[in-house]
Structure formats: C-alpha cells, structure tokens
Write a structure and sequence with these properties.
about 35% helix, single chain, mainly alpha
C-alpha cells in the first residue's frame, strides 16, 4: 500500500512478507459420465467379436433363415 511505513526490523529477526493465500487447485474428475456408454461398449464388443470371427453379422443370419 502506498504511504504505509514499515517498522525497522532488528538484524537478528526475519522479515515476513505478506502473501495472498493460494487457493486449492481444482482437479478434473477421473471418470466422466457419458450418455449411452453402455450401448457403445456393447456395440464395440460386438465389433470385436465380428473381427475375430466369433459372431456372424445380422445380414448373414437373415439370409440363413430363408
């Protein structure tokens, strides 16, 4: 502050400088909520099964039913 005088400090003492307190840092949540996540995971699991040949495509199943 301008115009404020400081008191003299003896040589054997430390001078404390006024500091602003630090606010705690905000952390991002580790897990985010995603709409339809369960459906997306199921779809991805089906895609993996298709690529590994563990599951037939719906189109292939429909042709077999005829």
């Amino acid at each position: 502050m301008p115009g404020k005088k400081r008191l003299p400090v003896p040589d054997n003492q430390l001078t404390l400088i006024p500091m602003e307190p630090e606010l705690p840092k905000k952390h991002k949540p580790r897990v985010k909520r995603i709409d339809g996540l369960e459906e997306r995971v199921t779809h991805l699991e089906a895609e993996v099964a298709l690529t590994r040949g563990q599951l037939d495509r719906e189109e292939d199943l429909d042709e077999d039913d005829d």
